[in-house]
Amino acid sequence: EKALECENAIQQLKKTQKELTQEKIELQVKKYEQQTTKAESEVKRIQNYVDLKEAYGGQAGKVHYKGMNKYTQKQIDYTIKQNGQLRELQKTTAKGSEAWNEYQKRIDDNNNSIKQLTKSMAENAVAKFQLTMKIHTLTGILS
Q1: 6 touches 31 (CB < 8 A)
Q2: Distance CA 119, CA 139 (A)
Q3: How far apart are CA 32 and CA 78, in angstroms?
Q4: Which tens digit of pLDDT belongs to each residue from 35-93?
Q5: pTM of the full predicted structure?
Q6: What is the rounded (10 degree) CA torsion for 60, 63, 66, 67?
């Protein structure tokens, strides 16, 4: 009977340890989500400034595109880290279970976001290049 009590206690401790591990990983996932949101806010702030400047006849500077790409890269980095944590969470559940599938859906959504963010970075790089060429052209005319 004492051995059975010990076995039950061990099983309960293992269950608690698994739950605590999952909670710890979930907190990491949430942290990366928050960091991604913060970086996204910075990109939007810069974009809003560029839009306002253009609305009044001005134009964005290279620094704006560089800034947007800096924060977009941070979004990508945090999303990749989040995917790593989601994969760790998947290991704590049975493959094919509802929880496992939910984690996989989040990973897939994150991968789609990474593709969109990468596309956005490429567009910013093109815009920065075009601005650089425009400046060189104007400088050449004025020289």
Answers
A1: no
A2: 30
A3: 5
A4: 999 999 999 999 999 999 989 998 888 899 999 999 999 999 999 999 999 999 999 99
A5: 0.84
A6: -90
CA distance linking residue 131 with residue 125, whole number of Å: 10
Cα–Cα distance between 63 and 127 in angstroms, integer? 11
Cα separation of 78 and 57, whole Å?
Answer: 35
Which distant-in-sequence residues (6+ apart) come within 8 Å of 94 by Cβ? 100
3-state secondary structure the chain: CHHHHHHHHHHHHHHHHHHHHHHHHHHHHHHHHHHHHHHHHHHHHHHHHHHHHHHCCCCCCHHHHHHHHHHHHHHHHHHHHHHHHHHHHHHCCCCCCHHHHHHHHHHHHHHHHHHHHHHHHHHHHHHHHHHHHHHHHHHHHHC
